[in-house]
Amino acid sequence: MNRFKWCLLCHMLFGTSLLAQDFMINDFSSEVYAIITIDGEQNGKVFKNGVIRVLWKNNNQQILSVRSQAIIIDDQTKAVELSPSLSSIPINGQTNILFQDFNFDGQKDLAFQIDFSNKGPMYSVYLANGRGGYKFGQEISRVIQESRGKFELDPDFRRIRVAYSDGCCYRYFAEYSVYGDYLELEGEEIYEDDGPYRLFISRVREGREIMEVVEKTINVEDQRIENILSFTLKDKGKRVMLFGYNGKGLNYALIDERNNIEFSFPLDSKQVSHDFYLNNVGSAISFRNKDAQYEVYDRAPQHFGVRVKVGGKEYDMPGDISTKIGGLSLKTLRYENVYQKQ
Fold first, then answer.
1. pLDDT tens, 215-249?
2. Which of 116, 157, 159, 315 makes a 20 to 30 Å CA pair with 79?
């Protein structure tokens, strides 16, 4: 009887603990097998704490051991009981262990599900080292963990593609070339909704350089946007938009000819200083951003625009009457970040 069969027989006869439960995965490799040991007293828990060990079949020596707090053994696992304390499960139909070539060197690697959240699973990847062992793949693990299970391995181009999202308002896509345990970013895209704004960032490798494109636009489909005053600046083609959002906050945006936002205030929803100050008659509203003082004025049907003071100089940019929509008034005070100038 070889050592692997003898170890299995001892497991069936004596078990390892009155409280622990072991599950063996033996069908993914001709050289190694895995034992998943679930900590005791976890009845009713979907994600269980335990240890995943990988051992040699020829001598039952342990190669590595990984602690997990997200072991899943359910009806999909298709466990077959071998003894009261040991069951056998197939590699297919379970997610605790992945046996794939993550770095495209022709050797199968191991990934262990160590955690799980509402965003998906988190894996630690151990790369086959070519000498019969495995080493922790730090860079590959980081990228795979950030994807929360949403990754694709492309052996033809030796690339890993990942995607993840954060709620309704953030999506991320990236593609990496793989060189051993080293990853090189080939491109990434970020889509983010921040209040009334939509942000798109694209980074693409061109030779040794990463070329970046940033587009920030107003989400015109958002019904929580209320136009207060908008117009195009004379001789510039840029559009000024003063608008309320969600009935609470006032916002200012300068939009270029391509509909991208050149400047906005507040800069984002997390900015601490985001206040506007309305004059006593409601004909001008001002705000400060760093060293610049901005004033949007609407003093007469044909006398409106933006005035900027910065570096000891003042710039007056009048608006085009044919493009004017809306107007300033004391009603603007209803927004929580608008105060009357004393």
1. 999 987 788 999 999 999 998 889 999 999 988 89
2. 116
CB 15 within 8 A of CB 8: no
* pLDDT given for residue 268 in this prediction: 62
Instruction: Give the closest residue to 219 by CA, choosing from 254, 253, 193.
Output: 193
Other Cβ atoms less than 10 A from the Cβ of 290: the count is 7
pLDDT at 38 over 80: yes
Number of helices and strands in the chain (H, E): 2, 27
Q: Measured between alpha carbons, how far is 101 from 29 in angstroms, rounded to an integer?
A: 13
One-letter-per-residue 3-state SS of 147-214: HCCCEEEECCCCEEEEEEECCCCEEEEEEEEEECCEEEEEEEEEEEEECCEEEEEEEEEECCEEEEEE
Ramachandran region of residue 148, left (φ > 0), alpha (ψ -120 to 50) or beta?
Answer: left
Rounded Cα distance, 241 and 323, in Å: 11
Amino acid residing at 45: K
Q: Is residue 146 classed as helix, strand or coil in its secondary structure?
A: helix
Separation CA 163–CA 166 (nearest Å): 11
> At 140, phi and psi to the nearest 5?
-65, -40
Q: Global pTM?
A: 0.78
Q: How far apart are CA 65 and CA 67, in angstroms?
A: 7
> What one-character DSSP code corresponds to residue 47?
S
Higher pLDDT, 240 or 75: 240
Alpha carbon distance, N-terminus to C-terminus of the chain: 93
Q: How far apart are CA 297 and CA 320, in angstroms?
A: 13
